[in-house]
Amino acid sequence: MQGIPTSLRHLLLASLACVLGAASLTYVVDPLQLFRASGLVAAFYSDDTRVQNAGLIRSQTFDTAFMGTSLAIHFRQSDIDRALGVHSLKLAMTGSNSRQQSFVLEQAIARGAKRVIWAMDDFIFIDAAGIEADPYLSVDLYRRTTKGIASYLFSAAMAKESLFALLRSVPPLQEPLTRAAPYLPLKFALPNVDDIYALPRDFDVASGYNARRTLAAFTYITAPTRSRFLGEGYGYDVMVGHFERDAVDLIARYPDVTFDIYFPPYSILQFVAMREASPATLTTVTDLTARIAERLSQLPNVRLHDFRAIKAVTHDLDNYSDVIHHSPVVDAKVLAWLASGEYRVDSSKPTAALDELKMQVEAYRVER
Question: How would you write the pLDDT of the chain (368 residues) with one tens digit per residue?
């Protein structure tokens, strides 16, 4: 630093010391648990699942990975374990596509998952950026490359989380800071891994899930000014290509892993909305899921379940908060169906449930 004024040199050294100190703090505390399971301070978790999953895969013990979109996000690991007799890790990500899901599942399988439970929504196969260019999922963080580790250690946000976690470990501060954490600008505020993106245990299900909300959502998405969004991104050939690459190829690479894949129980109004406002989209969906059912039912390490034509659930609009998102009551039913195999697709009749669904959609009339 010869020639640099003393004051500037001191400033640079102080800045470097601060940066290295913050990185060291993040490494030691490791709020994401990317390097080790939490030991120095109590573990806290984030609802930012695309980031949190990278740490969960590294720090948790599991034999089963649970994947899906927002339709699977409110399941609790404890409920999955109890219903299916497994030790699960919930990796569901809201709005995720098949490329993201396939990538994250492969990381979980590499860490020991011998079973995958996969809520396979048709819309996960719409076109999306390649995983290496995905702006919403840091593959380098999952792979723990130099770039990924550097982005983690030298993140000001992670340094803030680490400092707060350290303060939270001081006995006099532990209780008040833990209570305050959900109301502070922090990502890592959940003290229990079972609570990641789960509804509060005292959540009023009847107010959040009811026919009034479901019908309002139906009216909204079928309005002439918005109905075009029902088919946005839906293209049969592209979606089949993504299914083959992201699902079939993944399953084929891991013949010793059991895949329990299910079509979630959307409300009947999801399909009726397509029938009324975007019939081409309905054709794409039914053709696509017929192809998926035919392909998956022939793979030896796949058990495919189709819950879309169970009228007692899908026609009861009180089970939904909109036309697709079902209540915790239905979550429990899904787990029971998976455990019993009651709605498992017969490989000799892979589209039987879909054919029943088509008839229901054609016959259904909306009572507004």
Answer: 555 677 777 677 777 778 788 789 899 999 999 998 887 788 999 999 999 999 999 999 999 999 999 999 999 999 999 999 999 999 999 999 999 999 999 999 999 999 999 999 999 999 988 899 999 999 999 999 999 999 999 999 999 999 989 888 888 888 888 888 878 888 899 999 999 999 999 999 999 999 999 999 999 999 988 888 888 889 999 999 999 999 999 999 999 999 999 999 999 999 999 999 999 999 999 999 999 999 999 999 999 999 999 999 999 999 999 999 999 999 999 999 999 999 999 999 999 999 999 999 999 999 76
pTM confidence score: 0.93
Q: Which 3-state string (H, E, C) describes the chain?
A: CCCCCHHHHHHHHHHHHHHHHHHHHHHHHCCCCCCCCCCCCCCCEECCHHHHHHHHHHHCCCCEEEECCCCCCCCCHHHHHHHHCCCEEECCCCCCCHHHHHHHHHHHHHCCCCEEEEECCHHHHCCCCCHHHCCCCCHHHHHCCHHHHHHHHCCHHHHHHHHHHHHHCCHHHHHHHHHHHHHCCCCEEECCHHHCCCCCCCCCHHHHCCHHHHHHHHHHHHCCCCHHHHHCCCCHHHHHHHHHHHHHHHHHHCCCCEEEEEECCCCHHHHHHHHHHCHHHHHHHHHHHHHHHHHHCCCCCEEEEECCCCHHHHCCHHHECCCCCECHHHHHHHHHHHHHCCCECCCCCCCHHHHHHHHHHHHCCCCC
